[in-house]
Design brief:
This protein is α/β, with parallel strands linked by helices. The chain folds into two domains: 104 residues, Enolase-like, domain 1; 199 residues, Enolase-like C-terminal domain (TIM Barrel, Alpha-Beta Barrel), CATH 3.20.20.120. 31% of the residues lie in helices and 23% in strands. The chain contains eleven helices and 14 strands. It has an eight-stranded parallel sheet with strand order 5-6-7-8-9-10-11-12. Strands 1-2-3 form a three-stranded antiparallel sheet. Strands 4-14-13 form a three-stranded antiparallel sheet, with no helix packed on it. The mean pLDDT is 95.
């Protein structure tokens, strides 16, 4: 007998190459929490990013994980985890660790255990941080060879920013992320500027909970919910306001809910985007399964770090490949 599983977790800090800036501020490092669940000769790992926007802290997430040790010893699995913990970063790390452990102990890839098709390589967006039009234009020029760019916007001056980006990346597909920084007063003006620049998708223009205006305007391009959508329970009522949803495992509380949410969202007619926080390849690896259903893939977190964990995902330009078993799954 292997005995009950044991849980360990730790906080890690990974320097960002330069800085990463969105409408809510800038940061120079990615702070992640890694959960490890061991049983017998096998250890499964999962990584999450506590997000202050949702009231999470690294210490709080670590404490929430450690509090699950007794439940794990009593037989907690991925399915019961959905009701034992609320959606969020802590559950994500534990869910992904349990999935990884199951794959390793059964000698199978995780997608086989989940009855999902084997993932294939996908092209990921590459993020341009928020800054002045000149700064963003210069950063875009260095990334203009990439097929899909994700542009962080911030409210006032966004028309000039997106015009500068398009000037320096005439061939790239563009998606923009306002991170809740627009208002009902500049919404249509900024959407028009994005339309003029040939933007394909706009993420979360208005604050979550204050996005009623989205239901009453003409949407010239597709609009994607991010902060307004977390798990399946938050899909209701979004269809009249949004055309797509951004699925992030740190919001859904793990791969189990993320896959169920992707299925439910597609049934409702939403386009799917799979996104990430700035983190290592251990965070991105489970999301590669969701990426198979996504029109937009934004899993560039490791590309924004000074260095990634080893082994990590294989990136060739903007193409990201499924994880090897040594990393996850």
């Amino acid at each position: 007998m292997n005995g009950p599983p044991t849980l360990r977790c730790r906080i890690e800090r990974w320097p960002i190459a330069g800085s990463f800036t969105i409408s809510r501020g800038a940061k120079t490092e990615a702070v992640v929490v890694v959960a490890e669940v061991s049983q017998g000769d096998y250890t499964g790992r999962g990584e999450c990013v506590p997000y202050a926007r949702y009231g999470e802290t690294p210490d709080g997430v670590q404490a929430a994980l450690l509090a699950m040790q007794a439940s794990l010893a009593a037989g907690l699995d991925r399915r019961s985890l959905l009701t034992a913990m609320s959606a969020g970063a802590a559950r994500n790390a534990l869910d992904c660790a349990l999935s990884d452990l199951a794959a390793k102990s059964n000698g199978q890839r995780v997608w086989t255990l989940l009855d999902r098709p084997a993932p294939t390589a996908r092209s990921t967006a590459y993020t341009i941080s928020l800054g002045s039009p000149e700064t963003m234009g210069a950063a875009t020029a260095k990334a203009a060879h990439r097929p899909l760019l994700k542009i962080k916007l911030g409210g006032d001056g966004d028309a000039e920013r997106i015009a500068a980006v398009r000037k320096h990346a005439p061939e790239s597909e563009l998606i923009v992320d306002a991170n809740e920084s627009w208002t009902p007063h500049n919404l249509e003006q900024n959407l028009a500027a994005c339309e003029a620049a040939g933007v394909t998708l706009v993420e979360q223009p208005l604050p979550a909970g204050k996005d009623e205006a989205m239901a009453h305007i003409r949407r010239p391009i597709a609009v994607c919910a991010d902060e307004s959508v977390h798990d399946r329970s938050s899909l209701d009522g979004l269809r009249e306001r949004y055309d797509a949803i951004n699925i992030k495992l740190d919001k859904t509380g793990g791969l189990t809910e993320a896959l169920a949410m992707a299925d439910a969202a597609q049934a409702l007619g939403f386009e799917i985007m799979v996104g990430c926080m700035v983190a290592t390849s251990l965070s991105m690896a489970p999301a590669m399964l969701v990426a198979q259903q996504a029109r937009f893939v934004d899993l560039d977190g490791p590309l924004l770090l000074a260095e990634d964990r080893v082994p990590g995902l294989r990136y060739e330009g903007s193409t990201v490949y499924p994880p090897d078993p040594a990393l996850w799954g």
